[in-house]
């Protein structure tokens, strides 16, 4: 086994070579390579232990990372000038190595990034719902983990990891791992609570609304809380299976 690093802005993590997408990994994430075959590597994601396959070209030697992209997305430029050529776009949560910092642009090992779009690795946000709100309007993508597309569990994971809270990648393990059961169903909804259905998860935004990435809106959206619960039940996806509160 060996340690490697993701060197593509977004790469699908597949259940098997050339198989369906299970999740995604983004620039700078660390993985452990368990084996290689036919241009594919079987990897374990450091952030959550998720196992899958990525193409070998998506991996590079591990390098120190010092900062993370705390804007919804950013561009990497060839020069410290917004009119210079951009090399790639990086999503929220991507990790980079800073070489020198300026007022407007920061030099990284990959190019120049607007300084306001980066935060030191040790910087943690404090409100997962506020992080989720940053993603409002992001297209829904099954198994997605980036600004280009995200699903319900990807949104919850990105929001919690940004606040320093460990989080699995899928809604089922999230339901089992996160928080304590809250008050009886239908009462005392607080910001940051998690509502689970079979195969779905949403944040309570306040006592009357929730925020989630969902296939009904095909986007990250804010929705009235009880009407959303009623809609999901009516469309055949079942009742809320758990109301959990992070502690």
TrEMBL record:
The keyword Zinc-finger does not apply. SUPFAM superfamilies: Cysteine proteinases (SSF54001). InterPro entries: NLP_P60_dom, Papain-like_cys_pep_sf, PG_Endopeptidase_C40, SH3_16. The keyword Protein biosynthesis does not apply. Keywords: Hydrolase, Protease, Thiol protease. Pfam families: NLPC_P60 (PF00877), SH3_16 (PF18348). Residues 122-247 form the NlpC/P60 domain. GO terms for molecular function: cysteine-type peptidase activity. One of its GO terms (biological process) is proteolysis. Belongs to the peptidase C40 family. This is NLP/P60 hydrolase. It comes from Parasedimentitalea marina.
């Amino acid at each position: 086994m060996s340690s490697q690093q993701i060197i593509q802005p977004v790469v699908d993590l597949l259940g098997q070579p050339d198989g369906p997408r299970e999740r995604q990994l983004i620039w700078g994430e660390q993985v452990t390579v368990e084996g290689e075959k036919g241009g594919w590597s079987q990897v374990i994601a450091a952030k959550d232990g998720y196992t899958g396959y990525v193409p070998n070209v998506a991996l590079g030697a591990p390098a120190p990372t010092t900062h993370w992209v705390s804007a919804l997305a950013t561009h990497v430029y060839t020069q410290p000038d917004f009119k210079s050529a951009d090399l790639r776009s990086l999503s929220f949560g991507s990790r980079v190595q800073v070489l020198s910092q300026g007022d407007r642009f920061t030099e990284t090992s990959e190019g120049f990034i607007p300084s306001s779009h980066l935060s030191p690795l040790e910087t943690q946000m404090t409100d997962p719902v506020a992080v989720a709100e940053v993603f409002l309007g992001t297209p829904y993508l099954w198994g997605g983990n980036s600004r280009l597309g995200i699903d319900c569990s990807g949104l919850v994971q990105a929001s919690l990891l940004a606040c320093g809270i460990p989080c699995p990648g899928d809604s089922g393990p999230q339901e089992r791992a996160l928080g304590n059961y809250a008050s009886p169903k239908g009462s005392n909804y607080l910001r940051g609570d998690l509502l689970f259905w079979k195969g779905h998860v949403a944040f309570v935004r306040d006592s009357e609304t929730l925020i989630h990435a969902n296939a009904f809106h095909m986007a990250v959206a804010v929705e009235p809380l009880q009407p959303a619960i009623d809609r999901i039940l009516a469309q055949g996806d079942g009742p809320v299976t758990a109301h959990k509160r992070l502690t």
